Amino acid sequence: MYETTYHRAESVENAVALLGGADDPKILSGGQTLLPTMKQRLAAPSDLIDVSRIADMHGICEDGNAISIGAATTHAEVAGSDLVKARIPGLAKLAGGIGDPAVRHMGTLGGSIANNDPAADYPSALVALNATISTTKRKLSAEEFFTGMFETALDEDEIVLSVSFPVAEKSAYAKYPNPASRYAMAGVFVARHGDGTVRVAVTGAGQNGVFRSAEMEAALAANFTPEAVAGISVDADGLLSDIHGSNAYRANLVTVMAKRAVAAAG
Amino acid sequence: MAHVSMSVNGKKVSGQVEDRTLLVNFIRETRNLTGTHVGCDTSQCGACVVHVNGKAVKSCTLLAVQADGADVVTIEGLANGANLHPVQAAFREHHGLQCGFCTPGMIMSAVDMINRYGPGNLDEKTIRHELEGNICRCTGYQNIVKAIKAASDEMAGMQQAAE
Ligand SMILES: Cc1cc2nc3c(=O)[nH]c(=O)nc-3n(C[C@H](O)[C@H](O)[C@H](O)COP(=O)(O)OP(=O)(O)OC[C@H]3O[C@@H](n4cnc5c(N)ncnc54)[C@H](O)[C@@H]3O)c2cc1C
Ligand code: FES
Ligand code: FES
After folding, report:
1. Is A96 at the interface with chain B, CB within 8 A?
2. Pocket flag, ligand 2, residue B110 (CB < 6 Å)
3. A105/B57 CB distance under 8 A
4. Contacts of A77 in chain B (CB under 8 A)
């Protein structure tokens, strides 16, 4: 790892000031992506601004018909939250399936979405549940936020503060993990909202990160059963193809995961 | 450089570290506690698992400065004098190791999972799922799983006896 200077931010204002005062800073949250990247010398921030101890960025609470989760809340906290388990069980299950227990004790919601790994789990939940992301500058819808592989709408000096997840009528997540890394080879989050609309968001498979399947959404809005999506396949052209699986293999996995997610949503 | 102070296995320690020093290096090189191992560069093997404020974390994926003020327990802190922790004893009893390289991390993860689920509440499927972040190149996991199950049940018995 190259040299760096560590700062512990005491508050959101303090973090913004520290970001503004540094040469080439990076926000440090759980460190479960950033530190491995720095160890490989693929990132060399001059300064690390640790936001993990900022109280305002922690916690899970009910916010009307939505659940709001602080950006520095860990995957283990989301997975273990009685509120999330009761209101959006698919989200608790998703968080409980990220990586392994030690990664879940450190890794955070904000770090995961800011990184926008094409194989990360959370982006699919944000898109399917139509979540709103609050930052130090604005509020963004999930679809505005995720702009491409490892890319988001965030400015360099913008911090994710929290994410508000509307409570869906039914929702669930199904993931086919890479057996070595535990990241998604394909993951599908399905949500039926109170107004009858259905959103299907796919992660792990797309070349540009998370995407929706309009065809599956229409089929499920008419008939919310696994059979409704069994015959629908996403176009393999825009999908990832690597040593772990070809794009055709991933396209098939997406259909299988969509069926499983609908079955789990009940 | 940064000043850090933390409790390691119940002992207050402090010192100057480079900001980029990983917790595992602080533990191994400045505390000479070499039971915590480094098995990979990619945060995947779990040989380095320690407890920070009661939770299992990968000490190779945490800066020492991030653990400032924390309560750290390593494999050296588990036994009570000459009396092995029940999980350590079970690994010996059930032959839960061969070369032993992964063992400190396995045991720290096992203690963490027993703490979270409560003694006696672990079945084989749960143990295997919970061990996703700990890689063993020797045993094939069979006896590791057996040892953790036995320790968990044994600890439930001890808890009952104490009540
Ligand atoms: C072995 C292993 C297995 C894993 N498996 C999975 C998996 O199965 N599924 C999955 O989804 N993920 C997986 N991960 C990644 C894990 O979920 C990370 O926790 C997550 O991607 C990053 O969160 P973090 O809090 O650790 O962020 P960090 O590593 O601290 O930061 C990541 C990036 O986000 C930026 N950032 C952090 N917080 C904020 C914020 N509040 N506002 C703006 N920018 C911010 C940082 O500057 C950095 O660029 C795995 C990681 C490991 C090591
Ligand atoms: S050394 Fe920490 S996970 Fe491998
Ligand atoms: S006993 Fe050798 S790696 Fe596990």
Report:
1. no
2. no
3. yes
4. none
Query: Residues with Cβ < 8 Å from A233, sequence gap 6 or more?
Result: A251, A252, A254, A255
A44 shares contact with chain B (CB less than 8 Å): no
Q: Tokens standing for B59? A: 């000490």
Q: According to the model, what pLDDT value does residue A156 have?
A: 93
Pick the CATH number of A61-265 from 3.30.465.10, 3.40.30.10, 3.30.450.40, 3.40.50.720: 3.30.465.10
Lookup: tokens for A51: 């936001």
- Which of chain A's residues have a Cβ under 8 Å away from the Cβ of B20? 1-4, 38
Average pLDDT rounded to a whole number, residues B131-150: 97
Whether pLDDT at A159 is above 90: yes
- Could you tell me the domains of chain B? 2-77 (3.10.20.30), 86-162 (1.10.150.120)
Q: Is B81 left (phi over 0), alpha (psi -120 to 50) or beta?
A: left
Write down the ipTM of this complex: 0.96
Q: State the DSSP H helix or E strand holding residue B94, giving kind and residue range, or none if neither.
A: none
- pLDDT bucket at A266, cuts 50 / 70 / 90: confident
Q: Which-ligand-closest: CA of B45?
A: 2
pTM, whole model, 2 decimals?
0.97
Where are chain A's structural domains?
5-49, 61-265
Which atom of ligand 2 sits closest to the CA of residue B44? 3
pLDDT at residue A45 tops 90: yes
Contact partners, residue A18, CB within 8 Å, separation at least 6 = A7, A9, A25, A47, A49
Specify the fold of A5-49: 3.30.43
Q: Give A207-263 pLDDT, tens digit per residue.
A: 999 999 999 999 999 999 999 999 999 999 999 999 999 999 999 999 999 999 999
List the structure tokens of B81. Answer: 């004098």
Best mutation target, B43, B129, B131, B135, to test chain A (most A CBs within 10 A): B43
- Predicted confidence at residue A75, as pLDDT, reads 98
Cβ distance of B42 and A8 shorter than 8 Å: no
